[in-house]
Amino acid sequence: MITALPNAQTPPAKHGLRVVAAGKFLQLSDGTPHMLRGVSYGPFKPNSRGEPFPEDDQLAKDLRHIAGLGFNTVRLYEVPTDAVLREAESHELRLMVGIPWSEHVDFLADRTLCREIEARVASACARLREHSCITAFLVGNEIEKTLVRWMKPRRVRAFIEKLIDTARSNAPHTLVSYATYPSTGYLVPRNADFLAVNVYLETADAFRACLSQLQNLAGHQPLILTEHGLDVAAHGVERQAETLRWQHEYLQRSGCAGSVWFSYTDEWYRGGREVTDWQFGLVDHGRNERAACTVLRGLPSLMPAPDVPPRISVVICTRNGAATLSACLSSMSELRYPDYEVLLIDDGSRQRIAEIAKSFPQVRYHYQEHAGLSVARNTGARLASGSIIAYTDDDCLAHPDWLLHLSHAFTDENVAAAGGPNIPPPPRNRIERVVAAAPGAPAHVLLDDTEAEHLPGCNLAIRKEALELVGGFQEEFRTAGDDVDICWRLRETGRRLVFVPGAMVWHHRRFSVRAYLTQQHGYGRAEALLMKKHPERFGYLGGARWRGGIYGDQNPADHPVEGSIFHGPYGLGAFQVIYASSSFRWWEWLTGVLWPALLMLALVFHQPWLALGVLAFACWAAWQVSVRNAAASGIHGVANRLLLWWLSFLQPVVREWARLRGMLTLGARPSRHPLLPDIIPPVRPHKITFSLGTLRFWSEDGVGREQWLNEMRKSFRTAHVIFREDDGWRWFDFEAWPWAEVSRAYMSVTEFHSEGRCLTRVKLLLRIRRSLGWHLILWLIVAAILMAAGLHSLLVLGLLATLGFVLLVPLGVWYVRREMLSMTRAAAIKAGMTEMR
Question: Considering the entire predicted model, what is its pTM?
Answer without folding.
Answer: 0.90
